[in-house]
Amino acid sequence: MATLKGGYWGKILKINLTNKKWNVEDLDPAIAASYLGGAGLGIKLLYDALGPGVDPLSPENVLVITTGPMTGTDAPCASRMAVVSHSPLTGGVAMALSAGHFPAELKFAGYDVVIIEGKAESPVYLYIKDGDVQFRNAERLWGMMTTDTQLFIKEELGDHNLRVACIGPAGEKLSRIACIINERRAAGRKGVGAVMGSKNLKAIAVRGTNKVPVQDPQAFSQILKDLHKLMRDDPALYPGLGKFGTSLAVDVTSAMGIWSAKNWMDTGVFCPAEKLGSQPLDTFTIRRNPCYRCPVGCSQVRIAKDGSYANVLTEGPEFETIYSLGSNVGVDYAPAVIAADRLCDEYGLDSISTGVTISLAMELYERGMISKEEVDGLELRFGSYESVLELIRKMATREGVGDLLADGSRLAAQRIGRGADRYAIHIKGLELPAYDIRGAKAHGLNYITSYTGADHNRGYAFQEIFGVPLPEPVDRLEIKGKGKLTKWNQDFAVSCFDSPTFCNFLNSALAVEGPRIVSGLINAASGLSLTAEDIWQAGERIINLARVFNAREGFSRADDTLPPRLMEEPIKTGNSAGQRISREDLDKMLDEYYEARGWDKETGLPSSEKLVELGLADTVAAVEKARAAYKGGSGTK
């Protein structure tokens, strides 16, 4: 059996909060080779740890934090971690990525993985320093904002070189859209912050002093030269993302007519790029704040300069937040978007789900489906940024109408009733990101089939959004071929970025050479002997295992669908005017996607043959049970 000689430590730190015990277990090299790290390894460990039907907010759920074999090495853009759990928002796999310096520090502490089990009797935080773990009282921290929490812990432990990941009040209140914040980076989506809060775990502080070993430094260095050249040659990476950050996507999607607005009613109609685009927001930028060993530095530190929110500072807002707390709630005032972004980070709320849920409430209010009394007297109309900021506070603290909205748009619509579910913009319970997929069909099919729900980064269709003709040119409005392309994009993302781990912003740079670069770096670091084909197959294996996990929880083809608005209402104007994804077109794309994956078209579940081919024979019984339940009439989540 292969051994891990570098890249990986080969160590899993298991922490039980119930009995305040911890131990270190070995990471099986065969599992590392099959699932790589990051998202892949996290999904494998989650699947093995849980049986079906575990309540995501119960002590029986686990929180799995996984680094990748590149994390903490000299590889650029690789200080990333996956936070994996059973999602309290979707009911399926939760996988949220975060970057910054915390992932590298965790690797320096000597661990590839941390698995957190059980529930503390009272609030605690964890202090991990190299080979030691301490359970520390967090009762004084309970209720603190995230920045204060991080500063307090560093002061208490007397070490400002610590890296801290924590929850804010939203996670403590078990908001199903709560996130985990480290510095100003978020493991943002699917409610992982609520899982942490359900365990009475306020924070994890990490300090490591070890150097991550690399088995063949010379070979590793040579492949890094190839990677850096590919990054330099990418026309969008340094001149675009490096200068403007993700706000660049406002300009791109506005020109395409797919920057979503006002709960997806006014895409192309309300399009304030002249106020919220890359150039206007650049006037608020005071510096960049790169992640560990990132030469690109897409993260922009911005400060509001006028009006009621003058001197409010945030890191961002990223493109998705410019959408969710800007265009999608009808706001075009940049200082207010900056303030809303900062407030979400401080309370520990996912900014996408927060903004989309608020936009649902705004539409229902304007339609007369909810009254002013039901929204605590707020004038909840599109464009009212004062109401947006007040609702963020109320959602995080579950005050008044905030309690109704704190668990995302699906549950809010169900609680309101009166036909509100028609206007809830989510897939599998996860609110949709910024790109109006009626005008980008493969991007949409990825939202529909992603194992986490509507998540743009699980299979980002950069071919459609940025016109990159790799692996081949595509027409963004055509449905034919999008099933095969979506499979390619999803396998590519999880195998070359989410698992090794690398930043997804390298996708176009690595569109041709990705599997070769990744396999070469892992081999040089660890001593494994992976081929480029092994990397591709690892991606397919990970996607299938995640699908099996979701199948055990009752998911099937019935859940691979869209909000009614996107199937029935075309985009009104702009360069994507008239576009929608009809039920017929959706079914055609799904059929092609399932065929490309080797999945059963009727149920949308993996075939037994495909699972055996990928080394997942031990999951066949679970899938066959799910298939039988579907055919028996109970196959919808």
List the helices and strands and how they pair.
Elements: E1 11-16, E2 21-26, H1 29-35, H2 38-49, E3 63-66, E4 81-86, E5 93-98, H3 102-108, E6 113-117, E7 124-129, E8 132-137, H4 146-157, E9 163-166, H5 169-172, E10 180-182, E11 185-187, H6 192-198, E12 201-207, H7 217-233, H8 237-244, H9 248-256, H10 273-276, H11 278-282, E13 285-288, E14 300-303, E15 313-315, H12 319-324, H13 334-347, H14 351-366, H15 385-397, H16 401-405, H17 409-416, E16 426-427, E17 430-431, H18 441-449, H19 462-465, H20 482-498, H21 514-526, H22 532-552, H23 564-568, H24 583-597, H25 608-613, H26 620-634
Parallel strand pairs: 1-6, 7-12
Antiparallel strand pairs: 1-2, 3-4, 3-6, 4-5, 7-8, 9-10, 9-12, 10-11, 13-14, 14-15, 16-17
Helix pairs in contact: 1-2, 2-22, 7-21, 13-15, 14-17, 18-20, 20-22, 20-24, 21-22
Structure description:
This protein has 637 residues and is of the alpha+beta class. It has 3 domains: 11-207, Aldehyde Ferredoxin Oxidoreductase,  A, domain 1 (4-Layer Sandwich), CATH 3.60.9; 234-431, Orthogonal Bundle (Aldehyde Ferredoxin Oxidoreductase Protein, subunit A, domain 2), CATH 1.10.569.10; 437-499 and 531-634, Aldehyde Ferredoxin Oxidoreductase Protein, subunit A, domain 3. It has 26 helices and 17 strands. The protein has a 6-stranded mixed β-sheet. Strands 8-7-12-9-10-11 form a 6-stranded mixed β-sheet. Helix 14 packs parallel to helix 17 and helix 20 crosses helix 24 (583-597). It is globular. 63% of the residues are buried.
